[in-house]
Amino acid sequence: MLWQGRRASGNVEDRRGTIFGGGTGGLPSRAGAGGLGIGGIIVILIIAWITGINPLTLLAGLEGGSPVVVGQDEGGQSSGRQGVPADETGKFVATVLADTEDTWSEIFKKGGATYQKPTMVLFTEQAASACGFASAASGPFYCPNDRKLYLDLSFFQQLSDQFQAPGDFAQAYVIAHEVGHHVQNLLGDLNKIEGMKRQAGDAERNQLSVRIELQADCYAGIWAKSAQARGVLEVGDIDEALNAAAKIGDDAIQQRTRGYVVPETFNHGTSEQRSKWFKRGFDEGSIAACDTLGTSQV
User: Which pLDDT score is estimated for 135?
Assistant: First the structure.
């Protein structure tokens, strides 16, 4: 994937290494080394909770260190460092995000609408969102309540090692899939599906989840087609994405982790379905081609 030197999005909150982002799972090592016992740490946390001040700021003030710079969003949650991350992987995901912005801004403009760009939150181990608290174990996710994508970058290593889906375009596909959920949110499909789920039984709810996930895969394919037109793709990139889609199919994951599959519990789609709908989005390049909600067979 030819991403170096391209525009990177500033719509990134880097919460890695902050308490509010859940990055360290505790206080910085200097907190213990500076003479504060567990009682002192608890007092600092209580004061921070009452006042709303970042506890790292209080600790840094006591010990003469430099606090981790964080802000707060409108909901009072930490917004982390804003802008393009300085590290290579951070720049990569910010560049992929920017490319999805270009794709969907153009598509929405052609439809007479304005694309509202999402924010990507980078975190380590755990993160608080407007949809609740999540850990790295849950994988990348999109929260429609705050319109943010949440990503622990360690997932990319897991994607390569555990799922046997290496490559930068496989990683880009994961981001584009989560952006696909944002597009669904803007178009009203997520609300529609949630309403349908409330009226459905367990099996039907799972099937509705599968349809919404496959549509996000299809939207990722639309982005890939647009990226190809901009000269971003290299030979083998689409194969990387298709391989990733197949390796994270419900049947593939269950077979690997359980040794057998339970189709009625699928909520993301089979390997064949995920590859099929990504490919359809890439081949057709249109929202209309991604109507997994209106078709009788996915």
Answer: 83
